[in-house]
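Q: Convert this sequence to structure tokens.
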Amino acid sequence: MYYVINMLTLPDFKEKKILYISNIDDSLPNLLKFHNSNIRLYKDNKFVNQISIHLVFCVFICGTTSITTPLIRNLQEYGISIFLLTESLKPYAQINAQAEGNYILRKKQYTLADSSNLEIARSIVKNKVQNQISLLRLNKKKLPESIININSKIEKVKNIQELLGLEGSCAYKYYSLIFNNISWSRRAPRTKEDIPNLLLDIGYTFLFNYVGALLRLFGFDTYKGIYHQLFFQRESLPCDIMEPLRPLVDQQLIKSYNLKQIKEKDFKFKNGQYFMNIKYNHHYTNIWFTMIMNNKEKIYKYIYGFYRYFMDRQKNKFPIFQI
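A:
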């Protein structure tokens, strides 16, 4: 029998939503309270809105908001994680809900053989590259032979370091092709050197937190990675599991540019970096949260498949995520 928290059954999960609370005006303080199985929002001590706690999967809070201790206790009881963001949408703290008692799963994580570690890492990279190829084809890009034939090269790598190098080489070619219609220069994480990179960082970060919340509720130790090795204070496992999902963010960025949802006037440039005008936070967070919600069932099934595979690798195949 698999150990899964009741809330993670797919029929229930289909109804779950991301709750996003934003407050960029400190003169009108936000307050979140628990009341009759609802999460209630008060602004300047006046009731504004509420949502049933049964409909929420995770909560993102941007800017200044007060939270009552009864609400925190109930969010933990219902398996709901809280992520705190700065006004520029950078996460700075989180209150995680997790199934800490799944010791069988964690024992399997900690005792995974090196050969199995490399096998899983290969599967993750193969899946990511296949989704990148699918996205390139969807956008009618000409595929280099080096990307088309990469699976045979992945099978020949002898360690994680070789695999990282091969994936990096493929990613460089992929990014230069997929974004060549949006004034793309290069992929430069966390540098904020242009608007596309800034938006990709935000999209990847929201996806990372969402994946991490799911993994914790299945009982995984999210700091114990497979492809991404142990690193101080880094949750390496969500980095692994979100690799095949990254093209979802890439696809949404292209779509948002095509739909004229992204406007240069919404951003500021200072000290060599781009920043989003905070009054447009809701518009851009809505782009990424809508993308996640539109794919939440596929993401759930993928992570549940990974859980089943990890619990019994003899009976279950490694899951494949298809964009």
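The chain has two domains: 6-95, 103-311.
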